[in-house]
Amino acid sequence: MKSHKRPVYGPEQRWAILQLMRLRGWNVQTTADRFVLHHNTIRHWINAVHADSAGRLLAGVPWNRIDDSVRHAIHMLRALFPEPEFGRRNIAIHLLRAGIQVSSRTVQRVLREEKPRRPRRRVALRSADGVEPRAILDPRCPNQTWHLDLTTAQILWLKYSIAALLDGATRRVLTLKVVRGAPTTEDMAGLVKHTTKEHDTPRFLITDHGCPFWKAFHAGIGPFGIHHVHGPVRKPCFNGKAERFFRTLRIGLRGVLLPIGVRRIQQRLDQYREWYNRHRPHQALDGLTPDEAWLGGTLPEPIPFRTVDPHKPVITVERAPCRGDPRLASVRIRIAA
Length: 337
Description:
Helices cover 39% and strands 17% of the residues. It is built from 13 helices and seven strands.
């Protein structure tokens, strides 16, 4: 058995093993086999007893070992949120939002104590470097760059189109609208016009070369002073923020029976948009939700909880549904000293 898979015995258990070895009359090899240890480990404990060095036998707890309550909170989050998209990074982000200092690698190590996982191979995407300035793709303040894109959804024999309009700096979904069939240029121009009345006017608007974004669309948003930017051909990463949102949307609605009808589907999308903006922390925003980034919020300073600390926290983890939908759940973590 490999060393990292062998059991770990505490100080009291080490004394108990040596006492049981003496009472039973076992030799070093027999004791090591029964307790799944290396024989040199047993000899090291015996030498520590003969040398009267209890510090070698009763080794102290590592100073950087996280507290058991944090480990329990990690396993509770994994049990309450078994969705595949709720991975170790999301668990670490939610704990950081609650004020608990923990890294994603620590979360992965704690979860692998129960069941090891195979590493997933990730394919690196090409960088979104084009003829446009980099400031368009990496805005520093809200309402500087918007991303607009379309996706399709088929329910039985009916086909719908979903349009999403996102803010590039905060990833906030400003508008999420569904239409029957293929949208027209007037529909997309009206969508941008309606959004500017609620969230002011951006400087840039990024789209692809789809039919709804041709000359008529460019002329429709021209009076608002918006600079329309077409992404390079065969380079979807230029509008990757909208593309990535659609992937998250499809994962979130996976396995859900969507209703038939534009009005009922729109209610479902409004419910998802509220959950995405208010309750889902974003990795690109350092753990903030899109609404918090839009309003300029900050996270509390995380506190490391270690086993050697004298004060033991009590961490409570809950799963709360958003607007009565159990699939769109929010995380609630409470810490009591």
